[in-house]
From TrEMBL:
Organism, scientific name: Bacillus aquiflavi
DNA-binding recorded as keyword: yes
UniProt keyword terms in alphabetical order: DNA-binding, Repressor
Source organism superkingdom: Bacteria
Coiled coil: none
MF GO annotations: DNA binding
A Pfam family: TetR_N
Keyword DNA-binding: yes
PANTHER family: ACREF/ENVCD OPERON REPRESSOR-RELATED, TRANSCRIPTIONAL REGULATOR, TETR FAMILY
Record protein name field: TetR family transcriptional regulator
Domain HTH tetR-type: 6-66
Amino acid sequence: MTKSDQEKYIRLLNAAKKKIAEKGLVKTTVSDIVKEAGVAQGTFYLYFPSKNAVVSAIATEHLENLFFTIKRKSASSHSFLSLLHIIVEETFSATDYASDVLVLCYSGFAIGNAFEEWETIYEPYYEWFEQELNIAKKRNEVRQDLNTRQTVRMIINLIENTAERLYLSHEKDISAELMKIELLSFLKHAICTLK
């Protein structure tokens, strides 16, 4: 994509987030999005085959930003526990910051019945985390009997679900800090070799 194309794509994405947040996915039209972005209607279809395709692009952008931050911050981590801590911290932070975007994505995927697409978006994250878990197995930091493929999905889903329960449902019976401590303790006892 050229710089100009990238700028239009970002304008469309930001306009879609804004208009869908204001009006909801069903009531937002492509015309609303292009008007907000300041581009012609045909330009929208150069980047997205449908309005629902924007939801996938928004979800991809959110996850890529989270994944990039986790990888950058974990580059110098020397243990699986420190990696888990970074993943929990960054997932909670991203969920708090982008709670409106996540609600939009979930509703869009539910309307479009496209949860399989959500899993496809997550695949690079799963693959990276599976490699990290395999390294931890070789270092005897985690249980040797773990099915790494399934375990990474369970860990990521547990962390995200816990953060979403806090920030999307506004559950306030426990603070975010206490919830993160409990979550990390649970994960440590479930998968790590205790020394």
